[in-house]
């Protein structure tokens, strides 16, 4: 029965839909010749992409499923289909005549097939064991963070210092975003390698070690999305003669619009003018800062500071290099965090996602603890 309120049923529905839509896409879009029938198939597929998040009740823990569906279908799936149709590029075109399993990984999973047209040989191909280990460790850490942040019935966390809007609370919620995003990529990569036999590229490359905003957004954070946006937006704009700064800003704006759609789908009835547009503004600001950074020559770390340990490379030079490297990393992460507090985290707080997320993610651990005789409240939503 729709709308779906249970997160478990929601995930099962997403998986079932992904199998059906992947088979449809491979047969009627990726392999089909251009023409009216293919255009009709593309329109039907995109309509399914945009309608799928509406199957979930956003006032419950299933809001996580609405956001996940909006991300995997509405954003990445749509971008992949458009790249395939408009330029015959991207993962769908290169996997059109591959096995259904390989095409499924290209269509649905947030992974980059290796070797692939969008991949970079230097980025490495992590093993299934490494991906599984990273996923388990990130999931465990995220559950610990959520347990510390878990709000009471009145919406406040157990510790006032961790309240949403405080520096400590926002730092932990920002860490939750990092763990959730990178953990999802690790899980998807492990699934692609183990279940489908598809090797994948790295998705996250230690974003907290970034020494510039261009390094953070272009070479470390969510490289699966970066490769897709680069192929579908940045490179076509540059090829048509658009200046680098404008192409960078437009690419960030497209990402911002996609995030706004995820916000709209995930909060539905409570989405209003007091929230609308701030996720878009966050990415527009990041794009402007990256363009300014590149224009000022600050986009790359200096050679003498690259990976230089304290005391290496000639005493004082090594120490200064290490200090400079640390300062650049702290400044980069600080700028992202400072802009994320009012523009990225605050809208999520406004629609009540912290309580919904912690309740849905902590429900199973609570059930396990209760089965073991530990008296903990379920505090479930919906």
The rounded distance between the terminal residues' Cα atoms is 15 Å
- Give the overall pLDDT as a whole number: 82
Hey, roughly how much beta strand do the residues contain? Answer: under 5%
User: How many strands, what sense, and barrel or not for the largest sheet?
Assistant: none
Order of helices and strands: HHHHHHHHHHHHH
Q: Which class do the helix and strand fractions yield?
A: mainly alpha
**Which value, in Å, is the CA radius of gyration?**
22 Å
Number of strands: 0
Q: In percent, how helical is the residue content?
A: 55-70%
Instruction: Give the oligomeric state.
Output: single chain
Structural shape: globular
Count of runs of 4 or more consecutive helical residues:
13
Q: Please mark out the parts with pLDDT under 50 across 5 or more consecutive residues, or reply none.
A: 116-122, 302-312
Give an overview in words.
It is built from 13 helices and no strands. It has 382 residues and is mainly alpha-helical. Helix content is 65%, strand content 0%. About 5% of the residues have low confidence.
Produce a short descriptive summary.
With 382 residues, the protein is mostly helical. The protein contains 13 helices and no strands. α1 (7-30) runs antiparallel to α2.
Features:
65% helix; mainly alpha; 0% strand; single chain
Which SSEs are present, and which pair or pack?
Blueprint: H1 7-30, H2 36-51, H3 63-87, H4 91-94, H5 100-107, H6 128-149, H7 167-194, H8 213-219, H9 223-239, H10 244-267, H11 278-295, H12 316-350, H13 353-371
């Amino acid at each position: 029965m729709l709308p779906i309120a249970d997160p478990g049923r929601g995930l099962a529905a997403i998986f079932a839909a992904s199998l059906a839509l992947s088979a449809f896409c491979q047969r009627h879009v990726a392999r089909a010749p251009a023409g009216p029938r293919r255009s009709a198939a593309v329109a039907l597929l995109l309509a399914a992409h945009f309608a799928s998040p509406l199957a979930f009740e956003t006032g419950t823990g299933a809001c996580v499923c609405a956001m996940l569906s909006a991300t995997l279908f509405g954003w990445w799936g749509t971008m992949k289909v458009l790249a395939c149709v408009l330029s015959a590029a991207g993962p769908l075109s290169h996997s059109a005549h591959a096995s259904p399993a390989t095409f499924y990984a290209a269509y649905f999973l947030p992974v980059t097939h290796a070797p692939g047209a969008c991949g970079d040989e230097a980025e490495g191909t992590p093993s299934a064991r490494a991906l599984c280990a990273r996923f388990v460790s990130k999931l465990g850490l995220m559950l610990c963070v959520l347990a510390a942040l878990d709000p009471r019935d009145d919406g406040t966390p157990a510790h006032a210092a961790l309240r949403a809007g405080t520096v400590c609370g926002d730092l932990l919620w920002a860490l939750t975003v990092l763990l959730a995003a990178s953990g999802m990529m690790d899980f998807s990569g492990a699934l692609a390698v183990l279940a489908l036999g598809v090797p994948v590229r790295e998705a996250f490359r230690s974003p907290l070690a970034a020494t510039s905003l261009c390094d953070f957004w272009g070479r470390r954070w969510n490289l699966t999305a970066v490769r897709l946006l680069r192929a579908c937006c940045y490179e076509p704009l540059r090829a048509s003669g658009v200046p680098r700064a404008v192409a960078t800003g437009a690419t960030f704006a497209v990402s911002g619009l996609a995030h706004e759609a995820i916000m709209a789908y995930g909060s539905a009835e409570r989405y209003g003018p007091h929230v609308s547009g701030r996720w878009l503004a966050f990415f527009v600001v990041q794009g402007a800062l990256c363009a300014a950074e590149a224009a000022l020559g600050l986009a790359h770390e200096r050679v003498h500071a690259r990976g230089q340990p304290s005391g290496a490379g000639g005493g004082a030079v090594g120490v200064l290099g290490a200090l400079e490297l640390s300062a650049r990393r702290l400044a980069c992460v600080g700028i992202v965090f400072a802009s994320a507090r009012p523009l990225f985290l605050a809208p999520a707080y406004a629609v009540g996602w912290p309580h919904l997320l912690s309740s849905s993610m902590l429900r199973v651990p609570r059930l396990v603890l209760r089965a073991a005789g530990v008296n903990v409240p379920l505090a479930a939503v919906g």
